[in-house]
Amino acid sequence: MLRQALSVGKTQLTRGYATAVSTKAPITLFGIDGKYATALFQAAASRNALTTVESDLKNIEAQFAKDARLAEVLASPMLNKAAKEKLIDSLGKKSDITTNFFKTLSENNRLNETSRIISAYKSLMEAQRGIVSVVVTSAQSLNGKDLKQIKDTLTKGGLIKDFKEVNVINRTNPSILGGMVVEFGDYTIDMSVSGRLAKLEKLLTDSISV
Predict the structure, then answer these.
(1) Does residue 167 sit in helix, strand or coil?
(2) Cβ contacts of residue 167 below 8 Å, gap of 6+?
(3) From CA 38, how far away is CA 53, in angstroms rounded?
(4) CA torsion, points 150, 154, 155, 157, in degrees to nearest 10?
(5) Cα torsion through 188, 189, 190, 196, rounded to 10
(6) For residues 132 and 13, what is the distance between their CA atoms, to the nearest angstrom?
(7) Most buried of 29, 82, 124, 166 (most Cβ within 10 A)?
(8) pLDDT tens figures, 156-189
(9) Phi, psi of 22 (to 5 degrees)
(10) Neighbours of 205 (CB within 10 A)
(11) Sign of torsion, CA 176 182 183 188?
């Protein structure tokens, strides 16, 4: 059943991944965070500074982890650009690429996307190293056998190609009621009970409104 469900998205799931060539991003990410992370990745790659920028972002992320209010302040519409720029400057010394990148975020009013952009950049760096992280969300923790089956289905079934390592991460969320949600790259396969109920509710609502 698991293999059958996962195979539904096979064509869509594989096309977003490609082997990195020159400064090209190794995977295709979408959304605002994906767009900016990709631009940063390409800028860093063109100057052979991928790991330097990665170190800068890890430092910022570590400080966010120590004080959650930092990320909240950056995301707040109440704080003006100048104050947010000072906050970024206070987070330690950064490379020119990273400094200029955050200036661009400030000018475009996108500093509220900082945490998501950092996460997206991490995904790009993992893919660059031949690693892909698969997040499996379930109502209860899955055992090793279940996680291995998911990994085997994704790799042996051809859903994930051109990667040396597949890192399966299990997260629990009781609100999905049952089943699982599998996510990697910019793709999601929703096999959760809550997802099915939502689709059923929409179907019933649409039928009543006709």
Answers:
(1) strand
(2) 126, 131, 132, 133, 134
(3) 12
(4) 110
(5) 130
(6) 13
(7) 124
(8) 766 676 677 888 889 899 988 888 888 876 678 8
(9) 55, -125
(10) 10
(11) negative
Tokens (6 digits) for 25: 């991003």
Which residues on neighbouring strands pair with residue 136, listed in sequence order? 170, 182
The first and second tokens of residue 185, run together, are: 């790259």
CA distance 122 to 116: 10
Report the alpha-carbon distance of residue 103 to residue 12 in Å, rounded. Answer: 35
Token duo for residue 177: 């009621």
How do residues 96-147 score in pLDDT, each as one tens digit?
999 999 989 988 989 889 999 999 999 899 888 888 888 889 988 989 888 8
Separation CA 104–CA 41 (nearest Å): 14
State the Cα–Cα distance between residues 188 and 31, nearest whole angstrom.
14
Instruction: Give dist(CA 199, CA 178) in Å, integer.
Output: 15
Pairing of the two strands 180-184 and 131-138: antiparallel
Task: Look at residue 205 and give its three-state secondary structure.
Answer: helix
> Rounded distance, CA 185 to CA 138, Å?
18
Q: How many angstroms separate the CA atoms of 91 and 112, rounded?
A: 16
Question: Among 146, 144, 142, 120, which Cα is nearest to 133's?
Answer: 120
